[in-house]
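Thread: Modeling a multi-component assembly for a lab meeting

Hi all, long-time lurker, first post. My supervisor asked me to bring a structural picture of a complex we are working on to next week's group meeting, and I have zero experience with this. I have the sequence lines for every component (1189 residues in total). Could someone generate the structure of the whole assembly? Inputs are pasted exactly as I received them:
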Amino acid sequence: MAADSEPESEVFEITDFTTASEWERFISKIEEVLNDWKLIGISSGKPLEKGVYTTGAWEEKSDEISFADFRFSVTHHYLVQEPGDRDGREEGVEDALPLPMQDLLCMNNDFPPRAHCLVRWYGLREFVVIAPAANNDAVLSESKCNLLLSSVSIALGNTGCQVPLFVQIHQKWRRMYVGECQGPGVRTDFEMVHLRKAPSQYTHLSGLLDVFKSKIGCPLTPLPPVSMAIRLTYVLQDWQQYFWPQQPPDIDALVGGEVGGLEFGKLPFGACEDPISELHLATTWPHLTEGIIVDNDVYSDLDPIQAPQWSVRVRKADNPQCLLGDFLNEFFKLCHRKESTDEILGRSAFEEDGKEVADISHALSKLTEPAPVPIHKLSVTNMVHSAKKKIRKHRGVDESPLNNEVLNTILLNLFSQFKSAPSDSLTYKLALCLCMINFYHGGVKGVAHLWQEFVLEMRYRWENNYLIPGLANGPPDLRCCLLHQKLQMLNCCIERKKARDEGKRGNVSDRSPSGSSGDTGRGADHSGDNLKEADKEVGKSWESWSDSEEEFFECLSDAEDLKGNGQENGKKGGAKEGSRDPVSLKPEGRLHPHGKLTLLHPGEPLYIPITQEPAPMTEDLLEEQSEVLAKLGTSAEGAHLRARMQSACLLSDMESFKAANPGCCLEDFVRWYSPRDYIEEEVVDEKGNVVIKGELSARMKIPSNMWVEAWETAKPVPARRQKRLFDDTREAEKVLHYLAVQKPADLARHLLPCVIHAAVLKVKEEEVLEDISSVKKIIKQIISHSSKVLRFPNPEDKKLEEIIAQIMSVEAIIARARSLKAKFGVEKCENEEEKEDLQRCPCPYATWCILYAHLSNHLFTLTESSDEVTNFVPHFPLIFLSCIELNLSISAMPPLDEELRRSGSAEERRFTAGSVLDFPPPTGREIVLRTTVPSPAPYSKALPQRMYSVLTKEDFRLAGAFSADTTFF
Amino acid sequence: MASATDSRYGQKESSDQNFDYMFKILIIGNSSVGKTSFLFRYADDSFTPAFVSTVGIDFKVKTIYRNDKRIKLQIWDTAGQERYRTITTAYYRGAMGFILMYDITNEESFNAVQDWSTQIKTYSWDNAQVLLVGNKCDMEDERVVSAEKGRQLAEHLGFEFFEASAKDNINVKQTFERLVDIICEKMSESLDAADPAVTGAKQGPQLSDQQAPPHQDCAC
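Re: Modeling a multi-component assembly
Sure thing. I ran the full set together rather than chain by chain. Output:
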């Protein structure tokens, strides 16, 4: 280093002449890459196991090098082997042949179904390919090709690498490779011929054998025997037998009135195109020795029927279009529509609502009298007509997305099944119906239209006290979708309103009749939602919550006599602790006597009062309420406020209790309501008698606690005259408004779970028919997955898409199974007995069931990862024949002679059928010829020679690997 | 279910960014078994012999650290009276954990456990976790339900079991922490289960944008 810094010192220029030219640099780069990948040295490894090329994993490594400015990619392809195998590289036996040369002769992996073409042609487990990089031109000129090959040769020689090195020449699509493999004293040249048309002498075995022999140019006589492996492949692809596009359910047929609308409850299923695109049959003679068979231009022993090995490969269509999947996708797309119902149907339809409603209700009021059974249909039809009229006015008949009949059918269908105890709910049916409408009838327009009608119908039902059918009774089921809850909520409202109206009608004398219109009008005044109110008035005193009389009473007409009661009590400060209310008060609103308890002071039996039911809640209301409650914070004041806000129910119960039990006290109430807060003790009084003495628990005695306060405020008012805890009018209007403002997209989101649910059921139903075990598993997974995703409000689109994709994949699998079944004629065999016979029969003719089982196992477990599957089936030549017969009608196969069928042995039958039916010419002919002969001189080492040939309609290729001893040459 | 992006787990509310997960827990059981006291002991570390009987539903909040994660517990305290059942059961659906409580000095409250458990099964979300707690274990003299009975019942119902005392502060913290741990376990389990899910496709990458579930190494 010091010397360098001296300016005066003599300058030595070292020129490395070995890397002077671009060519030399290129070679050294190849060597570098080989070095980097540790491909130098003796390669060793276990002999290849049978089928390992298919079952094992292949990997590749790539790098880029350049020759001047021409870039090449270098790729190392290799079969992943157990680590022990590769470490042994250095320890190979000195005089053993390099591994690749041994592989040339290995017969265990001929014709691998999926492999790099070089693997198929040469049987190699490992090789390196140098090919022009992505955007570079092909290497075409002969001199360039030779130059490349020389580079490879030199690089291999320099490094001692035993991995075969190929260069790709000519156009990429021709897949032309030349290459070389070197070992100590041996070399294999890989050569290739690729032609569009095969010369006639190469189309048969004997011609190829001649080429092979002349190529080895073996000086020995007699020549060592050549071993041969032959495969003839037949491809079936133009299926004629089945018309795949399935017919959609025909709504017009429904209108005809025959089908009864069953179709609306069902989702469609199945592929619209054949999900199996090709079926390959390969007939293989894995090991023949020269001379055993004859195959020349005039005669051939290669009868596919006689081939010892058969295999079938199925090539699946990519993402076949399937009906159920389409349905789901289309419906899912709805979720992304932005338009509101008004925008879709035209705003005017709604603006007119106010005016038209009178019309409709007038028309419908006529229908309120008769028995409810015919009303259903009539009312719906009527509804539809008047609604139609209204819509038609603005948009014209032709613009209407659904024609009248269709709409009628739909609505009738929706409601018609209600009486027959349907297992599914209205919501579920609505979902399916919208799904259908969306797909077949006008898309989003149709959906908007139907929804509008639906909402109108709901309003009609509310206003006319008709319960909505197809919904479980009781409060909204929080396990269902919100829309379902809303409908249930509406039903609760209708139920209460109905009960109230009927009550009124029944007790005209008791209560002044107040029309439902009046009721409705006032509904908005009393807020039944105490919480909401409380929220607004946080901070007000106790009195202002609940003690304002005009808020308290339902009907003014009742208020007068109520006031009589109320004032008396009120003046005395409510039911003060221990105060004796005049027992003369008439008890009201009794449900039944408690049975065990009597009032502490008057000693009268304690009556359980009729109480108000707590307000039913949908999950959004509940959420709202708990948010309000949570917002009050965790302080003591917050807690107190919270308790007050929730005290409406307690207060109402206390009032009912007071009304039912005149003269009662808090202790009485507590003994009924919260028994553990009344503590009884046996005490001995001053006279020595054991008496049971009771008192309120410590917590009930806390001064001015909520319970005491409420008790003091409570007036004796029976439940029916109390302010409603649940304002059905208001809640119903809220629900109806909610329904009306749902855009088609919102609706789709609400109902998507129902649709997915239905789709899963459908898939399940179809799966049961096919009984495919892997599908069972996937369905299970889909169910658990969707239940996770759909549990939460607003699931992510991505997850929903996933679910839909999963359902689609199952559909495709089942469709494939069916397609296969059809192709193998499984369905053709209609005679059950015959079918069973065939299944039981061990002869090849009946192997379709075995084959089918094989195929399905493989197919359906590998579906997601691969697009083709091979399965080896030892004997089933005739199946394929019948399959060809079925699908291509190559030649008419006369029905098998009955007698022969019964008596003939398998062999006979095979023979018969074989002679009747001719195989078409094979789509592909592959022949591997192998031998071990000394080359180039008789005294040279005997080395592996191999030639592979493949002949297809438009392609002929010879790929030869010829080894030679290089020691003395 | 248990992705961190789901609203029930760890979705950070705009008002409070100070936690990684939020668990809703419900305390249920017969009237006057000590639910409110139990909660006050845990949340405020205070005890009053008599709390006003809860009207409807009340709640407290406590944030704890578990495996480097801040977990905000929103603990809802419910009224035990029969009459409040319909009101309180409506809240079951949002809860991830339940503390089902009885009073060891009160047979009736113990006999009602089965019933409460049925209520949970009916109204809660299927994955909700439940702990059975026998409260007031300081009142040994008045005990009528043996610990063994409690344990057997818990086992029968498939719940974990604690005896506790809000008054003497026995097992209160442990109860809550154990419940949190069980919920976390369940959460990571179901995340794991979701992993190889459904035909292998498209599942993997999506999991990675979720927060990893807290791992389980609790010491109690």
